[in-house]
Amino acid sequence: MVTTTLNDMQWMATWLLLFPLIGFLTVGLFTKRMAPKWAGILASAFVFFNVIITFVLWSYINTTHQSFQFNLFEWIQFGAISVPFSVSIDSLTIVMLFVVNVVGWLIHVYSIGYMRHDEGIHRFFSYMNLFIFFMLILVMSSNYLMLFIGWEGVGLCSYLLIGFWYKDHLNNNAAKKAFIMNRIGDLGFLIGIFMMFHTFKTLDIQTIAGAATTMPSGNTALLIITLGLLMGAIGKSAQIPLFTWLPDAMAGPTPVSALIHAATMVTAGVYLIARSSVIFVLSPVTMHLILIIGLLTALISGLIAIYQHDIKKILAYSTVSQLGFMFIALGLGSFTGAMFHLTMHAFFKALLFMAAGSVIHALNQEQDIRNMGGLKNKIPLTFFLFLIGTLAISGIPPFAGFFSKEYILSAAYEQSTLMGVITTIIALLTTLYMFRLLFAVFYAPESPKVQSEKHIHESPWVMTIPMMVLALLSLVGGFVQMPASFNDINLFSNYLAPVFATATQLNHAVYQPLGTTFEWMTLTIPLLIIGLLIIWMYMLFAKKSITDHLSFWEKIMARKFYFDELYQITVVRPMMSLSKFFREFIDEKVINRLINSIGNDTLLIGEKLRLIQTGNIGFYLIIMVFSILAILIINFIR
Amino acid sequence: MFQLYLFIFLSVLALWSASMVLITKNPVHSVLYLTLTFFTLAGHYILLNAQFLAVVHVIVYAGAIMVLFLFTVMLLNLNKTGQFSKSTITKWMAVIAGGLLFVVLVASVKTTDLVININPNLSQSGLVKNLGNVLFTEYLLPFELSSVLFLSAMVGAVMLGDKHKK
Amino acid sequence: METIIQPLQTIPLMYYIIFCSALFSIGVIGILVKRNALTIFMSIELMLNSANILLAAFSAYRNDSSGQLFVFFIMVVAAAEIAIGLALLISIYRSSHSIDIHILNRLKW
Questions:
Q1: How far apart are the C-alpha atoms of A224 and A289, rounded to whole Å?
Q2: Which residues are C36's β-sheet partners?
Q3: HSE on the CB side for A14, CA within 13 Å?
Q4: C-alpha to C-alpha distance for B159 and B155, rounded to whole angstroms
Q5: Average pLDDT value for residue range B114-133
Q6: pLDDT tens digit string along A7-61?
Q7: Distance from CA of C5 to the nearest CA of A (A)
Q8: For residues A135 and A265, is the Cβ–Cβ distance under 8 A?
Q9: What value of ipTM does the predicted structure carry?
Q10: Quick one: pLDDT at residue A489?
Q11: CB B15 within 8 A of CB C26
Q12: Which residues are CB-contacts of C108 (< 8 A; sequence separation ≥ 6)?
C-alpha cells in the first residue's frame, strides 16, 4: 500500500467523493424497491469504503510526507477567471477526513437502529450520504469557490435533515431558521471571496497564502477578506450573534444532531479559518475579534445551558460553547489547538448525542430531564457511556477533553495570565451543566413518568457498538498530544506543523513559554475546582428532582438571554412590515394598475376610434380622395 | 393641323358632356350625356389609329353598358327630378379636391421626359392584325382568364337579380 | 429611338395627358358630389375611360401593342363590374326602396 503511486492516490481521493454521491443517488432513487434495512446498510457501506480510503491516504501522506493537489475537471474558465474543481490533500485535510468519515460512519450505523421504524428511512440515508458528499467537497477543496459549494451544500443538507419530519411545521420553521441564519453568514463569505478575487485575481488557497505573505500586516484588503470569511464562519459555527439556530435545530432526529450539529458541519467554520491561517494571522484586528467572539459565545451559551430542561438543548448549547472554545484557540493563533479540540470534541459530543438518543429511545420520546431520573440502574450501559462522555467533555484526565482543553488553556496562559484565568473559568462552566445533566437524568429520584414506563430497555447492539467505539476514542484519543510537563508527546502538532508553518512564523504576537511549575499549577488547580463543582452538583441534583424556583438572573439565563426575542423585534418584524408594504402598496396599487391600464386603455381607444365608421359612403369617398391627394403631393414634393 | 383642330374639338366636346353628366338633375339626361361622351372618346381612339379599340369601345360601352344603365334607370323609375343633393360645403370641397387632383397630376408629369417613337397617325400597333398577333401569343393567359371572369360575372348577376320567391 | 418626323403636324403627348387628367378629375368630382348611386357608377366609368384613352395614347406614340391590349382588358373588367354592380343596386332597391347613399348606411358601428 505504501508503494502506490501518486496517480492511484488521486483515484482514491476521487472515489472519496464518488462513494457518498452514488449512495445518495441509489438510496434516494430506489426507495420503492429497497427494503428499509438495506437503505441503512448500503449507505453505511459507502461511508465505510470512505473510511478505508482515508486510512490509505493517511498512510501515504505519513510515509511520503508530501501533500498533493490535482484537478478533477475544469469548471469555470473564461478570460482571467479560472476556477477548476481541484482537490488538495495534506495533513489538515487528513484530520478532517478522519473526523468526517469515521464519525460519520459510526453515526450511519447507529442510525440503522435509531431510524428503524421510521417510514422515511430511505430519504434519511440518502440525505446523510449527500451531506457526507458535500462535507468532503468542503474539506478537500483547494480553492475557495469549491469550498463555498461544499459550504452551501452542507447548509442545504442541514435544512433537509432538520426538517426531516416535515409534517410538523415547527420542524420546518427550525429548518428555515437554520438555513436563513447560515445565509446571512454566507453573505459575508461571498464578500470575502469577491474581495479575494479582486485583490489576488485567483481563488486558489495556496496561491493566496503565498501572495499574502508579501503584503504588510493589517492591510485593508486582507482585513475585509478576513472579516468576510469570519462572518461566514460565525453563521456556520453558531457563534454570537448567529447562534440561535443551533438549539432550534435539535428538532431533527438525534443522529442528525450528532453528525451535523456536533461533529462536522458546525466545525466547517473552524476549518475555514484554520485553512486560511496565513491571511488571518496577517490581520490582527480580525484575530482579536475572533478571540472576543469566542469568549462571549463560550460564556453566554455556557450560562444558558445550566438552566435548560431539554436534554438535547443542553447538549446543543454545550456544542456552541465548545465551538466558542475553538474560536478562542483560533483567536490566540493556536490553530493546532483549535483542530485538536475539534477532533476530540467530535468524538465525545457525538457520543453524548448518541447516548442521549438512547435515553430518549428508552423513555419513548421523552426529552425533558425533569421527567427522568433513576435511570442508572435501568439502562446501565447507556449510563456508562454517558458518563464517559461527560468526563471527557469536562476535561478530566486521562480522557481526551483534558488534553485538548489543556492545549488551548496553555496557549491562553502564554498570552497573559489574565486571559488564561478567564478562559479557565469559562471552561469550568462545562462541568456545571454537564454534571447537572448527568445527575438529573441518571441519579435523581424517579419521576412519575419513569415509574410508569414499563419497557425501559437498552438500545440494540447496532446502536451501542458505535457508541462504544467512540467512547474508546474519547478515552485514548488525547494521548497524541500531551503537555510539556507530562511526556511532551507532540504527535498531533508535529503532524499539522507543516500546514501552519507559515502562519506561526508570521504571528507577531510574542508568547512567553510557560515554566514547568506554572504549567503544573494551571493543570492541577482547575482539577481541584472541578472536583468541588462535581460534589456541589451532586448535592443539588442527585438527591432531589429539579425545582423551578429561579431567581431573576437565573430567569434571564433560562430564557436564553432573550436573544430570540431581540432578533424578532429588530430583524424579523421590520422585514415582515417591509414585505407587507411591498405587497399591499407597490404590488397591488402600482403594478396592478399599470398592467390593467394597458388593457383598459386599449379598450378606451378602440371605443373612440370605432366612431369613424359612419357608414356614409360619401364621407368615405372624400377621405379616400384626400388621402390619395396627400400621397401624391408628398411624393411630388420629395 | 387638321388633326389638332379635330383633337381640340373632340376634347372640348368630351369635357363638356362629362360636366353635363354631373350638372343635370335628371338621371336619364345624365345617362344620355354619358353616351355622348363615349362617342367622343371613340373619336379619340380613331385619331390614335387604334381601330380595333374604337370599334370595341362603341360596341361595349355605348352599345351594352349604357343600355344597361338605361334599363336600370327605367327599372328604378328614376326619371323624376328633385333628388336631394348634398350640402354646399360638401360640393365645394369636392370641387377643390378634384381641382387639386388635376393640378397635381399634370404638374407631376410635366417635368418628365416623354418618349415618342413615331407619329401616332402612322402607328401600326392599333391594327386588328397586329393586335391579334400579340394578344394570342403573349397575352393568351389573361385572354382565357377573362372568359372565366365573364362566366362568374354572369352567374353573379343572374343570381343577384333573381326575385327570391317566398 | 426615332425623332419626330413632322413635329408641327403631330399632337403633343402633353395635350393627351392634360385632357385625360381633366376627364379623371371630373369623374372624381362626380363621385364626391352626387348622392344618386347610379350617377356615382357613371362617374366611375368616366374615370376608367380617361385611363383607357391615356393608355391608348401612350401605346400609339410608342408603337407598342401592350397598351392597347391592357385597355382591352380594362374594358372587360369594367363590363363585368357594371353587370354585378347594377344587379346589386337593384337588389338593394328591392329591400330598401332607395338608392340614396345617405340612406344606405347600415354598414356602420
A1: 13
A2: C100
A3: 12
A4: 6
A5: 77
A6: 777 888 888 888 999 989 988 888 777 777 788 888 889 999 999 998 888 888 8
A7: 33
A8: yes
A9: 0.88
A10: 59
A11: yes
A12: A613, A614, A615, A616
Shortest distance, CA A588 to any CA of chain B (angstroms):
53
d(CA A36, CA A39): 5
What's the pLDDT tens digit per position in A105-120?
A: 999 999 988 888 888 8
Q: Is C89 part of the contact surface with chain A (CB cutoff 8 Å)?
A: no
State mean pLDDT over B46-64. Answer: 91
Q: Which residues pair with A81 in a beta bridge?
A: A78
Q: Contact, A537 vs A436, CB < 8 A?
A: yes
Contact A625 C28 (CB under 8 A): yes
Contacts of A615 in chain C (CB under 8 A): 105-109
Which residue in A has a C-alpha nearest to residue B108's C-alpha? A636
**Whole-angstrom distance between the N-terminal and C-terminal Cα of chain B?**
65
Which neighbouring-strand residues pair with A89? A68
User: CB neighbours of A175 closer than 8 A, spacing ≥ 6?
Assistant: A158, A159, A160, A162, A163, A249, A251, A252
User: Which residues 6+ apart lie within 8 Å of A453 measured at CB?
Assistant: A363, A364
Q: Using CA atoms, how far apart are residues B92 and B94, in angstroms rounded to an integer? A: 5
The answer to whether A182 and A245 are in contact (CB under 8 A) is yes
Residue A627 C-alpha cell reads as: 388621402
Cβ partners under 8 Å of residue B72, min gap 6: C38, C86, C89, C90
Which residues between 601 and 620 in chain A have a beta carbon less than 8 angstroms from any beta carbon of chain C? 610-611, 613-618
To probe the interface with C, which of B8, B114, B129, B147 has the most C CB atoms within 10 Å?
B114
- Percentage of chain A beyond pLDDT 70 is 91
In terms of average pLDDT, the best of A230-244, A568-582, C69-83 is: C69-83
> What chains are in contact with C, requiring at least 3 Cβ pairs below 8 Å?
A, B
Q: Give A15-34 as a DSSP string.
A: HHHHHHHHHHHHHHH-TTTS
Grid cell in block for residue C47 = 374615370
C-alpha cell at C90: 337593384
DSSP A252: S
Residue of A348, A300, A352, A353 whose CA lies nearest to A324: A300
The span from the CA of A638 to the CA of A632, in Å, is 10
Residue of C nearest to A606 (CA): C109
CA distances (Å), origin A313, targets A155, A344, A561? 20, 21, 15
CA distance linking residue B82 with residue B95, whole number of Å: 22
The shortest C-alpha distance from C70 to chain A (Å) reads: 23
Alpha carbons B164 and C9: distance in angstroms, whole number: 60
User: Rounded to whole angstroms, how far apart are CA atoms B87 and A271?
Assistant: 97
Give A178's strand partners: none
- Evaluate if residue A536 carries a pLDDT over 70: yes
Residues in chain B: 166
pLDDT at C100: 83
Q: How many CA atoms lie within 13 A of A194 on its CB side?
A: 7
Angle at which helices A400-415 and A335-362 pack, to 10 degrees? 140
Nearest CA in chain B to C103: B84
**Stretch among A77-86, A174-183, A450-459 having the lowest mean pLDDT:** A450-459
Mean pLDDT value across chain A: 83
Question: What is the rounded average pLDDT of the residues A387-400?
Answer: 86
Asked if A180 and A167 count as a contact pair (C-beta separation under 8 A), the reply is no
CB contact under 8 A, A611 and C101: no
Question: Could you report the per-residue pLDDT of A138-171, keeping only the tens digit for each?
Answer: 999 888 989 999 999 999 999 999 989 888 888 8
User: Using the beta-carbon criterion (under 8 Å), do B130 and C65 form an inter-chain contact?
Assistant: yes
Residues in chain A with CB shorter than 8 Å from the CB of C104 are 617
User: Does B105 sit within 8 Å of A632, measured CB to CB?
Assistant: yes
Q: Is residue A151 within 8 Å of residue A186, measured between CB atoms?
A: yes
Nearest CA in chain A to B92: A622
